[in-house]
Amino acid sequence: MKRSDVVGGAVDWTAQARELDMADPLAEFAERFVAADPDVIYLNGNSLGRLPLGAVARLREVVEQEWGRGLVGSWSRWITQPQMVGDLVGRLVGAAQGQVLVCDSTSVNLYKLASAALAARPGRPVLLTDAGNFPTDRYVLESVARAAGGRLVLLDTIDDVSAAVDEQVAVVSLSLVSYLTGALADMRELTQVSHAAGALVLWDLSHAVGAVSVELDALDVDLAVGCTYKYLNAGPGSPAFLYVRRALQAGLQQPIWGWFGQRDQFAMGAHYDPAPDLRRFLAGSPDVLGLAAVAVGAEMVLEAGIDRVQEKGRRLGDFLITLADAWLAPLGFGLASPRAATQRGMHVSLRHPSARPIAQAVIERGRVIVDFRMPDLIRFGLSPLTTSFGDVCAALESVRDVVASGMDEATPVGLTADR
Amino acid sequence: MKRSDVVGGAVDWTAQARELDMADPLAEFAERFVAADPDVIYLNGNSLGRLPLGAVARLREVVEQEWGRGLVGSWSRWITQPQMVGDLVGRLVGAAQGQVLVCDSTSVNLYKLASAALAARPGRPVLLTDAGNFPTDRYVLESVARAAGGRLVLLDTIDDVSAAVDEQVAVVSLSLVSYLTGALADMRELTQVSHAAGALVLWDLSHAVGAVSVELDALDVDLAVGCTYKYLNAGPGSPAFLYVRRALQAGLQQPIWGWFGQRDQFAMGAHYDPAPDLRRFLAGSPDVLGLAAVAVGAEMVLEAGIDRVQEKGRRLGDFLITLADAWLAPLGFGLASPRAATQRGMHVSLRHPSARPIAQAVIERGRVIVDFRMPDLIRFGLSPLTTSFGDVCAALESVRDVVASGMDEATPVGLTADR
C-alpha cells in the first residue's frame, strides 16, 4: 500500500483497486465479453460465466453456416468435436490428448464413470464422498451404489477421507473446490491415499476447470468430470466433460451403451461392441452448439494462461477478504473460505446469520449479483477473466452500505423476510 | 393428371410437380427456413432438419440477451424450460401437459426409461425389440438388460412381437418409424398386445415426431422417447424428449439421480428424494440453447398442424414412388418402403445392389443430398415443411441421370468404388 492511498488516516481502497487493475496483465480480457448492465456488478461467474464475444460470433457461424448451409454434410466436422474440444479442455487440467471428452451433463458423466469404476473393483462395495460435496454428486453416487448393491458412505468432511478409505472402498469421489466454501482440496494427497488403499479416484472439477491449475496426468488421477458453464464461460447448460486416464480406458465399461460409443458406429451392427479407446464413454449425439461455445471458452483461458488466471483469482480473493475484514466483519460477517489463497478456489464465501435476506437485498438494492447458499453463506464469485479489483471494491462497498442502512431501519426492506 | 401434363405421349412430371406445389397449403413454410444452396436439393431432413429463420432469431436472443445480459438471473425462466418445451412437443404426440420433458439425448432418455420400466416389472427379465430397430436403441436396451441381470430378445421383425410377448417380458421397446424402410408400425395394435401380456411399451418416436400424427395418451402408451433434430428442425445434437404416462410417474424410478430430479432442488438435502412428478426423470442441467431451438421447431409444426404435415408428407412420398416406378425401376431400383402411404413415415427408401456408390455419386455429381444405409438402401427424406413436389421431381430426375450416365461409362465415376 502506498502512502498516497491513505486518506485522512483511512486507506483509500478505491485507489488501491485502481492500481491493482492497472497492473493486471489480464485486464484486457474483460473487454472480450458482452458488457453487463453498467449498474450491476456481476460476482456470480461461479454459477454462470459471462458471454464471450467470441462465442457470439462462433455460435452464429455454427448455426447459420454449418447448420444452415452445410446441413448434414457438417457432421463430418461435428462428429469428432467431443474429442477435439475435449483435448482443449484437457490442456487446462493437465491431461494429454485422448483422455477428455466433452459430452452430456456433469450428472450423466459422473454416473457413467462412477458406475464403470465400481464395476471395475469387484469385492469393494463402497463409494466414498463427503457430506459437503455438491448435491448432484452425492445423489448420483447414491444411485450408482444402490444399483450395484453397494453403498455410499458420506463422510462429515473431506478431512476424514484418509482415515476412512480402506479395502472396502472402490471409488473415492470428491470435488476439488467446495461449492460452499471455495476450499481447495489437496488433490495430490487425497489421490495418493486413495490409491494406497486400492481405490480409484473420481474428481469433480466443476468449480476448478478454467480457474485453478490442475495436473490430472501428473498426479495419476483416474477419473474426473466437470461442467463448462462456470469459468469456461460456455453458457447455460453447456455440455460437461469427463476424463479417463488412458491406461484405464480399455478396462472400464460405462453403463449407457449408446451408438456414439460403438466401435464401428455406422456399420449398425447387431450388438454393442465398445470402441477400444475414450470414445466408449460417449452415448448419444453430441450437443454441437454447446461444443462450439466450450471451445471458445477453453481457448480464451489457454490464451490467458491457467497459471496467470489462477494467480489473478487468488489476488482478487485476497483483496476481497481484506475488504471484508475492514468493512463487513463489524457488521457480523465471518469468513467461511480458507484465508490462505493457495487453499482456495475462485469464490469467497462469507457467513452471516441473516445471509439469505442480505443476499436478496444486496442483489435487489445493491445491484451486486452474488448468491446465497444454505444455511448462512453468501458466495462472491471471482472470474479472473472478467472480474476487476474495482468490481470487488465497489461490490463490498455496496454490501456494506446495504447492510448498514438496512440495520438502521425498523423493518429493513428485504432483510427480514426469509425468502 | 390433366391432359395438358401429357406431352407427346409421356407425362410431364415437372408440370405435375408445379401443380401439386401450387395446391400445397404448406408451401409458404419453406420460406421460413434459411435457404439452402440453390444448386442442391436437400432430401435429408430425416437426418438433420433445416434451420428455421425463427431459430436464428431465437438463438440470438437467448445467447445475446438472456445469457449475455440477463446472466444468472435468467435461470428463473430457464429452469422450467424442460417442462414448458416438453408440453409443446407433447401437443404434437397427443400427450396432455406434464408428461413430456425435453432433456438429454435419446440414448440417455431411453436408458433412463427402460431401466425404470424393467425395475418396475420384477420377475420379468426380458426386454423385447426387433433387429431392425435403430442401433442406439438395441445397444442401450442391451446395456439395461445386462445391468439388471435380464436379457434383450432381438426379434427378426416387428411382426414377430405378438407371438413373442409373454409373461417373461417386462418391456417392449420399438421404433414407430423404421429408420431403414420408413415403415410405420401399428402403435395401437402393438401397444395393446404388449399390455395384454402385462408388459410396458416404450416407443422411440425419433422418425415420427413432427411429421406423423401420434396419439400417446389415447393409445394408452406407457413410455416414449425421441430426438428433435429431424422433423422438429432443432439443430445438430439438440436435446431429446421423453414421455411418461402420468399414472406411471410416481411409481417409476429412473437410475440417474441428478439434482434436477430432486424434490426440493435448492435445499441441497443430504439424500436423494425424487420429485413426485415428471421432474424425477431429469438428471443434470438442461441445454438452454437447444431447448430454445426445440420450442421454435415445435411451434412451427403446431402452426402448420400435424395432420396437414402428415398429409403432405404422404403425398410427397406417393409422388416419389410414382417417379421411382417410372424412372428408376428400369435402372434396377426396388422399393424398400411400404407402398401404402398410411403405412409409411416421412422417408422413402429405395433398394439397389450398388446403393452405396450410387448414393455417393448422387450427392457429389447430382447435388441431391440423400443418404445410404447398409447394406443396399438409399433414403429420400421428405420434410413436409421444407420439401416441395418440385424438389422430389428434380431429385429423381437427377438420380436417374446420374445412374444412367454412370452405367454407360466403362469406369463410371463414383459408381464402382465401394466407399
3D architecture notes:
- The structure is a homodimer of 419-residue chains.
- With 419 residues, chain A is an alpha/beta fold.
- Helix content of chain A is 37%, strand content 13%.
- Chain A is built from 13 helices and 15 strands.
- A seven-stranded mixed sheet of chain A has the order 4-10-9-8-7-5-6, with helices on both faces. In chain A, strands 11-12-15-14 form a four-stranded antiparallel sheet, covered by helices on one side.
- Chain A is globular, with a radius of gyration of 23 Å.
- The interface between A and B is large, with 79 and 79 residues.
In which order are the strands of the major sheet of chain A placed? Answer: 4-10-9-8-7-5-6
Label the structural class of chain A. Answer: alpha/beta
Beta-strand content of chain A? 5-15%
Protein chains sharing the most extensive interface: A-B, 79 and 79 residues
Order of helices and strands of chain A: EEHEHHHEHEHEHEHEEEHHHEEHEEEH
Low-confidence stretches of chain A: 408-419
Look at the structure and give the mean pLDDT of chain A.
Answer: 94
Radius of gyration of chain A from CA coordinates: 23 Å
Cα distance spanning the termini of chain A: 40 Å
Fraction in helix of chain A: 25-40%
Q: Count of helices of chain A?
A: 13
**Topology, number of strands of chain A:** 15
Largest sheet of chain A: 7 strands, mixed
Basic shape of chain A: globular
Oligomer: homodimer
